[in-house]
Amino acid sequence: MFSDPALLRLIALEFGIVPNASITLDGDEIKKMLDQLPAEDARRCKRKFRKLHRKLRKSRKRGFASAKERVKIKKDDNKYGIHGNVPTQSQRRRRRELVRNFVDAEVRKLNE
Question: Within 10 Å of residue 25's Cβ, how many Cβ atoms?
Fold first, then answer.
């Protein structure tokens, strides 16, 4: 399903986020990497991840125009969490998956 883990890590670093090539060790791997960074760099990586996540969610919402599709937006909010609320563990995992899938798509573009 996913491309080469080394390429995933390189592309993630290009985006300025902590690379997350592992599916099973999601949160633990990221937390260990962030702990190794200086506080300011860790903060910057977290902010870039959030910015990328919001951008991806916004691009998904642009396609929803009809009333039925607007219901999907509310379900999407529940799936990824609502702005201003602390996300649950499953919402955090879905956010990581969304960003990981985007990075994987970028790797696939490079391989074509």
Answer: 12
User: First CA to last CA across the chain, in angstroms?
Assistant: 16
Model pLDDT for residues 14-60, shown as the tens digit of each residue: 888 887 766 665 667 788 888 888 999 889 988 998 899 888 888 87
Structural domain boundaries in the chain: 5-111
d(CA 44, CA 1): 29
Record the pTM. 0.74
d(CA 47, CA 41): 10
Q: How far is it, in rounded angstroms, from Cα 104 to Cα 38?
A: 27
Looking at residue 62, its pLDDT comes to: 67
β strands within 24-71, DSSP E: none
